[in-house]
Amino acid sequence: MEAEQQRRKGQKRKLEEESSAASAASSSSDVEEEDETGVEEICFPRSQEALAREVRAQVEVLERAFSWNLADRAAAKRATRALAKLAKSEEAVSVIVEGGAVPALVKHLQEPPPLLVRDDCASGGDRPFEHRVEKWSAFALFLLATKPEYQQLIDDAGALPLLMNLLKRHKKGSNCRAVNGVIWRAAGAITNLAHENRNIKTYVRVEGGIPLLVQLLESIDVKVQSAAAGALRTLASKNESNKNQIVECKALPSLILMLQSVDPSVHYEAFILLVSGIDEGDKASVSFVTSTICIVTSDPFHLFPRKVVLPQHNIGANMKFESEKMNTLVRARGKKDGRKPACNLLYAGRKWSLEMSCVGVIRNLVHSSPNIKKEVLLAGALQPVIGLLSSCCTGSQKEAALLLGQFASANSKCKVQIVQRGALRPLIEMLQSSDVQLKEMSAFALGRLAQDSHNQAGIVFNGGLVPLLKVLDSKNESLQHNAAFALFGIAENEDNVADFVKLGGVQQLQDGEFVVQVTQDCIANTLKRLEVKINGRVLMHLLYLMRVGKKAVQRSIALALAHLCPPDEQRRIFIDNNGIDILLELLSSANLKQQQDGLLALYKMASRAMMLSSVDAAPQSPTPWVYLGEQYVNNSTLSDVTFLVEGKCFYAHRIALLASSDAFRAMFDGRYREKDARDIEILDIRWDIFELMMRYIYSGSVEINNLVAQDLLRAADQYLLKGLKRLCEYIIKQDVNIDNVSSMYELSEACNAISLRQTCILFILEQFEKLSILPGYCHLIQRIVPGIRSYFDKALKPNSKNSES
Fold first, then answer.
1. Would you kindly state where each structural domain of the chain is located, as residue ranges?
2. Taking the model in full, what pTM does it have?
3. Does the pLDDT value for residue 131 go beyond 80?
4. Residue 456 near residue 450, CB atoms below 8 Å
């Protein structure tokens, strides 16, 4: 359970990081959105020393330029903007912090002191760059706070109270761009400061930050909405008190309305506008822009990269020229059509960030909070979240799938409702994405939905089984486990078993490489569940498909049944319905994997056969008709027949020989010349072997070692001494190995040694991997096919119930 919780936390953390990255990318892109005419470009220093000097120079400006004086405000704006630009480079963040920028930036999160009357008159009575200096300060702190080690430093500098004061500026009744910009940046800075920081999350709640953020959800500015939702998402993570207050502040209706009103089509419109304004001579510019403009997430037509920031300090002169050329073309197109410049429309991808933020807030609210989950569902969140499964934004799809998985938790009653409202098809389509994390979230949701019987059938009917089996081959452990859990649920429904088997699902479960133990356990339980289901109508269906289906289907079914069918149904399946022929055909395949599958299936069948225990037991000596005793072995007393072996006389007694086997009875009672002969010559048996054979005839037992066992077996077969044959076979079987199994099989055929033959067959089936690399392997396999068929015909006993019927 602990490993599972860690895995879930990892999934959640991935999505939060992706969403935060999307917000950061969106924020970075909007730095370029404003008209900065007259403001000199910031050149990124090429060395650490130059960077430190640049940072210190900007900090000194901020320390002295804190007034409403026009020159001071302009200088403060340039300095805060410069630091924000520099902070976009991860390598520069530490230098900026070490240069003392944090206190200076925090200082400019607030307005300067009020102007004196004479200064007010001198400046014309206005408030130059109102909101803009605070906006750039908040944005710079937002970027610095992306590194967790600087969160506390920024908080200790007094940033949080000032940032929350910036959120209140919407109360001034102005929806101007400057006000929205500073609120947006302030909310973003709070988000990064609160990330995984329990103390800051608590502080924001205690100081009244949550009601302010909830109010901002109703802003008409999409950026402000997205930033507020993102902050609430972070504050709700792992903090029950914050969750409860967010719900108490009536955030749910606004969040759900935001989900329903988002229009991601703006992003595609931007691309059409951009490309339609460019002729063939400017295609290089298109290539440059599509490789550098920051896009929040991948677009529906895969026209843009997923997340790339435009670092002006790293591009060469030619590329910079291309950038300026492209901006000129875009702005001209926008003015011509009377619409926004296309680059601004490209940044409409922030609406996707809004989707992700909204659904992220809801997901964090319902996590481990059953009561809030109920309120979220009652507020009507289910259908909008299902709708996001078809979003053009993969991030929104991931968040929606994960949230639906939480809705469909073990105690939830809405599993069927989720499917009825249309979630199944988009979830299955997501499984076929190239995005591993998107597939992971989809499999997670399907795994939860597959805990309902009707949903289990629906997933298979809608084509979900094949992609779930396919992602089992993934090297991603979380994706693999989520798919395994979904398949475990699907296997519970009898209606799915035939599809599972005929598609080769059983072989895939058996052959898969599953590193994590919890996944291995899940796969093992799935196979057990399938094994339990294979009886009655399910078995009848599989037998029908095995008779009339395509060759590949027949093979999959025969292989699966060899491993999973009830032992008392084996004869019905493999003898009566010719399943054994399908498996034996695999042994003749040129495909080594098919050969191995067939051999493994046959070995599994043999190991499940009930008679194997009696085959391996040491045979008991038979009770002879006449028992003369060992003292009469080669004893001339009362001897009435003499055998000449290797020139030596061996004295015997006809009465003992007649009772021992049909061979001796035919010799002495039949029409053979030995009938009346006093001396009988033995030409093809050595003396020691003949003596052991006679000792067995007279006493019913004999000590046999592996040096004489094979020759003694041949003698026992020649004289039809069944008991002695079994004893010899038992000794020989102990010595079967990789090197001699072929010759042992030949011996079993020559002597009609059934027990030895069965042992050789089982050994070959079990050790096929080692044998397959030896010369003559294919020939050996073909030689044992008749023996395999004969073995199973005898080994598989009829089911008494089937026989009676």
1. 41-144, 151-249, 256-381, 382-608, 622-700
2. 0.72
3. yes
4. yes
